[in-house]
């Protein structure tokens, strides 16, 4: 066989289409990465004190890849920080006031204001690392809570190293009240703050509440003042511009920026400009670009202005150009790490998720002209990572929408969007309302206005911080602890010192499992250990939640979350009307399959004793290959639509979800709720967790979110879908009526990724079948589905010839990634996923 | 309770009738087509097979076999099929799923419970259940009982038949069928005998019988003709033109689709596992051009060219789009 060095790509990968010269230039310019003259890489800013720091490591506790660099990041950002001349009263103010003033000062007065050639929107340079604005005393107190032997960092490392997962108070992951800014302007927010403040007693004014409201008032002027600066820049550029059309555009931009986001938007262009500036400042306020800062129902809150501008004569193509500029701006979030890695900092989705279509009151479909315009924009810009689109489907979704969705899946390797399913999702939100007593805020008259954030986590919009991805728990740890009576199966060995942990009973004392006579006894041990690991993650999370609440206010973001102004509490203090922390369970299918294997091997078939099984796991299955094969191939598995196996899976779900609801954060009174996202932990943590009873050796990937274990779904996609729907709760008896019949134990939703062969959508007839598959999914499946439409051959070709596949996007779990930019291990994992061929 | 012998249940099947379907493969077939894509389904008897790639060489099957008919050779484990009575001991003993039983007996109710699990997908797609094989009409009582229950449950039904059955059986089944997938492979009787082991006389008579049933039947029942495209056996211009001519002349009023199913060599390993030689083992997939040519010939020969449709995988010698017929 000869090697053809300039091998033609064997498969055609989706490329952008129908881009105007303006957008083509902006898109190409973005992808020049480090070669660009302009970029949005981090700049760091300090109060100039010797104790100052910028980097808030709490936000990164959920990113184990960064653990070794936490200290380096802190000192690097400190070293390169530019001093800001402080207001003379700066140190007399409260912490939130200092933060609000400092961030506004940096954004409005310190950073340059630039407009890219041809661009129709203003707003760049939002990747900032700003001073924590702490006094020396506050810094000492805070650092003690973070660094001490009982500090949050040590606790987090212990938790991670022992295979429990991770937790940390992370930024983003919510839908700010953007609709309000567009329709009422920042001035309405400011006015409300002023009147709320005025109504305070003098005592309150002097206290914490008054300080918070003053901070928010300062923050509420940031967008206005920044827009004014950009307006001046547009004026200046217009004067130099020789090309009359561009000059006209710049003058119009100057006008727009003189009005919005302070005033209500009057046109579609103003609305998008208002949205972008307001959104980008959220990312600036949190010093972390785009981790799940999501837009919500974009086609709903922008529609009135789209309609108005179209009626006033705006060319729809020009409207699309405005949106495409918005697309490019969203991607500049990645510039933060532009000099990192081989792909200019573009690695995975930051998760600026936008939602289109879906149900409204009375089950009515809410698709409008703008929905389809947005789909065109997605299609024409694709492949590109941000913003991440999500299409909400429901029983009443129009055929036209479904046809367009399927056509776009067929033409772009399945990657252009997440599909969210309203009936199942809304059932979860209703359960959340009921359990947490939030029925005033989430009920049948507004639940349809939910939208997902980040990857796929369902929340309400504008008043809800649900802390999605803040707490990530390996359910499998409870199986391990039940097998040992509370000890680690293999002791943690410190890689630096080579020292192993002495045997310690970290978990509950559930007795010696080799003495158990029945499955029921083992199940009870598992129950106890599940209660234990949930208590542990709640305790761990509390540490960083309490530190953030005290030392890391985000007054600007608080202006955009209903509840904060009224209570005078920052969003980090639990000021949002709806405050939850989501425990995202990882390793669900591995856990279920392990329990099924224990039951099958030890109790039902008596293939081995418990002692033999535990020994095999300690030996990582070496020397126990026959037993391992039985566990892998003969024991039942979740994901096959096998009612007996799925019944145990349901028990596991009900147990952990039920435990989760028992807790609230102590410092901020946020209610814990269950979800299943599992980001990419199922890859990395597979090297931490020892061999599991399902036959998995250490290092073989764990299961991903709600998905069955890799290759376990031998009965095909429909069986996989049915299993997923069943464990979420299925439907109420005779559930053929409205969406109220659906049940969903996971209000956050669960990530479900399925890979299909491209032949499944090869012609009109098969596309119709795939459309019907999606409708069937809506009846029987989960809350969200991500489709990959690639076959193993294509991916292997992409591994061999990455140069031909630079733009190949694949869905990993709730996010897209460029296939050629992810690690070999994850690549292999994606290749190994069962490719479902319709036969 | 009526029970029958089935080989396999295939869910999310999209090639055996309209919509999303679950296909039940019955075990046992009266024809022995040289190209058969489903060799496990020919024999009515239980059979075991061995997957080398799944085997972990523990030899548990060798120890478990009560008749000592499994031996270890340099090329792998060999089973003496003359002695093996498919008792299944080796299958139970195998820890890794390398030993598999081909065929299982299920009652109508057991099967029904399994088949109805994808009901939501059938309803949304206009799909249903397809009985295929093997030959479903070879187990008429079982097929009848199953079809009856499916109709009671309100599920759309299709039967994929080679056509070699009795008219009495057809009488029993037809009233519960919504779609007949009827194979016409070769029109020339001698060639048919040579390639399939049986004459096509009864098959053609049955087609006529079904046609006349459909013509006097007020209920909507569809008939799709299926012709496998087998290189040098069925894919000749003469054969396709002859079939097209016959269908046009006598049965066109009943036929809503004529499918040409491109030759598939993915079953090569299935023959090896059964210890059988396959004369098509080294025959490649057809090229897209060859399939398109056959489609053209059939369209010219059939009175309703738009009802002719070629399906199946073809050789990958271009982009992915080219690799799939139509």
Descriptive overview:
- The complex is a heterodimer of chains A (839) and B (326).
- With 839 residues, chain A is an alpha/beta fold.
- Chain A contains 31 helices and 19 strands.
- In chain A, helix 16 (369-381) links the parallel strand 6 (353-356) and strand 7.
- In chain A, helix 15 (316-331) crosses helix 16 (369-381) and helix 28 packs parallel to helix 29.
- Chain A is globular, with a radius of gyration of 26 Å.
- Chain A starts with 20 loop residues before the first helix and ends with a strand.
- Chain B has 326 residues and is an alpha/beta fold.
- In chain B, the strands form three sheets. Chain B has a nine-stranded mixed β-sheet with strand order 7-1-2-8-9-10-11-12-13. Chain B has a two-stranded antiparallel sheet with strand order 3-6.
- In chain B, helix 9 links the parallel strand 11 and strand 12 (255-262).
- Chain B is globular and about 60 Å long.
- Residues 318-326 of chain B have low confidence and may be disordered.
- The chains are: A alpha/beta (839), B alpha/beta (326).
Helix content bin of chain A: 40-55%
The largest pleated sheet of chain B is described as: 9 strands, mixed
Number of helices of chain B: 11
Globally, the shape of chain A reads: globular
Q: Could you report the average pLDDT of chain B, rounded to the nearest whole number?
A: 93
Give start-end ranges of low-pLDDT stretches of chain B.
Answer: 318-326
Distance between the termini of chain B: 45 Å
Give the termini distance of chain A in whole angstroms: 32 Å
Query: Which structural category do the helix and sheet elements of chain A fall into?
Result: alpha/beta
Helical percentage of chain B: 25-40%
Shape of chain B: globular
> How many runs of DSSP E, i.e. beta strands of chain B?
13
What fraction of the residues of chain A are assigned to beta strands by DSSP? 5-15%
Chain pair sharing the greatest interface: A-B, 36 and 31 residues
From the alpha-carbon coordinates, what is the Rg of chain B to the nearest angstrom?
Answer: 21 Å
Radius of gyration of chain A: 26 Å
Oligomer: heterodimer
Structural class of chain B: alpha/beta
């Amino acid at each position: 066989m000869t090697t053809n060095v300039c091998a033609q790509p064997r498969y055609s990968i989706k490329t952008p289409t129908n881009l105007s010269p303006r957008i083509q230039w902006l898109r190409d310019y973005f992808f020049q990465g480090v070669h660009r003259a302009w970029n949005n890489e981090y700049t760091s800013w300090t109060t100039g004190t010797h104790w100052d720091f910028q980097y808030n490591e709490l936000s990164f506790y959920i990113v184990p890849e960064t653990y070794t660099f936490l200290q380096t990041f802190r000192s690097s950002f400190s070293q390169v920080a530019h001093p800001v001349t402080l207001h003379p009263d700066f140190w007399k103010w409260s912490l939130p006031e200092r933060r609000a003033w400092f961030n506004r000062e940096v954004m409005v007065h310190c950073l340059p204001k630039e407009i890219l050639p041809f661009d129709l929107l203003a707003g760049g340079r939002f990747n900032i690392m700003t001073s924590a604005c702490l006094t020396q005393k506050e810094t000492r107190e805070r650092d003690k809570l973070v660094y001490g032997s009982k500090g949050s960092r040590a606790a987090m490392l212990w938790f991670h190293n022992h295979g429990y997962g991770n937790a940390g108070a992370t930024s983003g992951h919510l839908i700010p009240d953007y609709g309000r800014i567009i329709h009422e302007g920042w001035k309405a927010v400011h006015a409300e703050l002023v009147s709320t403040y005025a109504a305070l007693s003098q005592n309150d004014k002097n206290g914490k509440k008054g300080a918070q409201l003053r901070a928010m008032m300062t923050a509420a002027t940031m967008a206005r003042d920044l827009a004014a600066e950009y307006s001046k820049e547009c004026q200046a550029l217009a004067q130099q511009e020789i090309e009359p059309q561009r000059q006209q555009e710049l003058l119009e931009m100057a006008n727009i920026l003189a009005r919005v986001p302070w005033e209500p938007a009057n046109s579609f262009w103003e609305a998008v400009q208002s949205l972008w500036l307001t959104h980008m400042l959220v990312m600036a306020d949190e010093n972390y670009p785009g981790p799940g800062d999501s837009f919500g129902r974009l086609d709903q809150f922008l529609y009135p202005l789209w309609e108005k501008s179209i009626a006033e004569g705006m060319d729809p193509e020009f409207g699309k150009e405005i949106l495409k500029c918005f697309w490019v701006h969203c991607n500049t979030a990645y510039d933060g790490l532009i000099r990192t890695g081989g792909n200019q900092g573009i690695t995975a989705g930051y998760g600026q998720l936008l939602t289109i279509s879906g149900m409204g009151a009375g089950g009515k479909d809410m698709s409008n002209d703008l929905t389809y315009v947005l789909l065109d924009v997605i299609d024409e810009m694709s492949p590109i990572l941000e913003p991440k689109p999500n299409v909400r489907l429901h029983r009443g979704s129009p055929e036209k929408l479904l046809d367009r969705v399927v056509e776009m899946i067929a033409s772009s390797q399945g990657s252009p969007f997440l599909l969210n399913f309203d009936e199942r999702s809304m059932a979860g939100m209703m359960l959340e309302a009921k359990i947490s007593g939030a029925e005033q805020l989430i009920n049948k008259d507004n639940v349809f206005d939910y939208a997902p954030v980040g990857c796929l986590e369902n929340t309400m919009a504008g008043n809800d911080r649900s802390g999605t991805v803040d707490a990530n728990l390996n359910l499998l740890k409870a199986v391990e602890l039940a097998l040992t009576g509370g000890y680690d199966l293999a002791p943690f060995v410190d890689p630096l010192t080579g020292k192993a942990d002495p045997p310690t009973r970290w978990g509950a004392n559930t007795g010696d499992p080799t003495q158990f006579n029945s499955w029921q006894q083992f199940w009870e041990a598992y129950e106890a250990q599940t209660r234990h690991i949930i208590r542990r993650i709640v305790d761990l999370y509390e540490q960083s939640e309490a530190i953030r609440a005290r030392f890391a206010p985000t007054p600007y973001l608080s202006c955009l979350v209903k509840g904060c102004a009224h209570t005078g509490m920052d969003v980090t203090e639990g000021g949002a009307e709806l405050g939850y922390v989501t425990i995202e369970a990882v390793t669900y299918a591995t856990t279920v399959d392990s329990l099924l294997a224990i039951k099958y091997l030890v109790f039902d078939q008596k293939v081995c004793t418990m002692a033999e099984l535990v020994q095999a796991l300690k030996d990582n299955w070496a020397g126990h290959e026959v037993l391992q094969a039985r566990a892998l191939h003969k024991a039942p598995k979740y994901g096959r639509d096998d009612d007996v196996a799925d019944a145990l899976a349901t028990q596991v779900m009900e147990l952990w979800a039920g435990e989760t609801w028992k807790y609230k954060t102590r410092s901020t009174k946020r209610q814990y709720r269950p979800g299943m996202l599992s980001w990419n932990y199922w890859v990395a943590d597979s090297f931490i967790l020892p061999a599991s009873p399902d036959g998995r050796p250490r290092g073989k990937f764990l299961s991903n979110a709600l998905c069955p274990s890799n290759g376990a779904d031998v009965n095909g996609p429909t069986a996989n879908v049915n299993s997923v729907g069943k464990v979420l709760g299925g439907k109420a008896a005779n559930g053929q009526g409205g969406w109220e019949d659906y049940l969903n134990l996971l209000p956050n939703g669960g990530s479900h990724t399925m890979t299909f062969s491209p032949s499944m959508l090869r012609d009109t007839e098969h596309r119709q079948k795939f459309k019907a598959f999606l409708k069937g999914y809506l009846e029987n499946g989960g809350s969200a589905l991500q489709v990959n439409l690639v076959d193993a051959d294509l991916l292997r070709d992409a591994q061999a010839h990455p140069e031909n596949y630079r733009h190949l996007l694949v869905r990993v779990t709730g996010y897209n990634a460029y296939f050629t930019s992810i690690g070999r291990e994850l690549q292999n994992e994606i290749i190994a996923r069962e490719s479902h061929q319709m036969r | 309770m009526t029970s029958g012998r089935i080989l396999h249940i295939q869910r999310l099947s999209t090639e055996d009738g309209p919509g999303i379907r679950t296909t039940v493969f019955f075990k046992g077939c009266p024809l022995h087509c040289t190209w058969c894509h489903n060799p496990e389904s020919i024999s009515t008897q239980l059979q075991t097979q061995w997957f080398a790639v799944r085997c972990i060489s523990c030899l548990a099957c060798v120890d478990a076999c009560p008749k000592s008919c499994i031996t270890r050779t340099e090329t792998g484990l060999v089973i003496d099929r003359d002695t093996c009575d498919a008792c299944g001991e080796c299958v139970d003993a195998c820890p890794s799923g390398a030993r598999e039983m081909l065929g299982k007996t299920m009652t109508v109710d057991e099967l029904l419970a399994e088949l109805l699990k994808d009901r939501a997908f059938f309803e949304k797609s206009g799909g249903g259940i397809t009985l295929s094989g093997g030959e479903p009409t070879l187990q008429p009582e079982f097929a009848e009982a199953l079809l009856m229950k499916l109709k009671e449950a309100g599920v759309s039904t299709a039967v994929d038949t080679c056509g070699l059955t009795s008219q009495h059986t057809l009488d029993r089944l037809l009233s519960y069928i919504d779609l007949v997938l009827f194979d016409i492979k070769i029109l020339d009787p001698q060639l048919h005998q040579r390639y399939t082991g049986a004459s096509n006389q009864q098959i053609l008579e049955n087609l006529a019988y079904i046609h006349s049933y459909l013509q006097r039947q007020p209920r909507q029942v569809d008939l799709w003709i299926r012709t496998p495209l087998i290189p040098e056996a069925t894919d000749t211009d003469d054969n396709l033109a002859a079939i097209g001519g016959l269908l046009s002349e006598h049965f066109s009023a009943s036929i809503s689709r004529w499918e040409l199913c491109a030759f598939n060599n993915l079953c090569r390993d299935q023959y090896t596992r059964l210890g059988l030689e396959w004369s098509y083992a080294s025959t490649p997939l057809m090229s897209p051009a060859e399939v398109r040519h056959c489609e053209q010939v059939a369209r010219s020969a059939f009175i309703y060219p738009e009802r002719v449709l070629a399906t199946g995988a073809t050789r990958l010698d271009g982009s992915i789009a080219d690799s799939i017929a139509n």
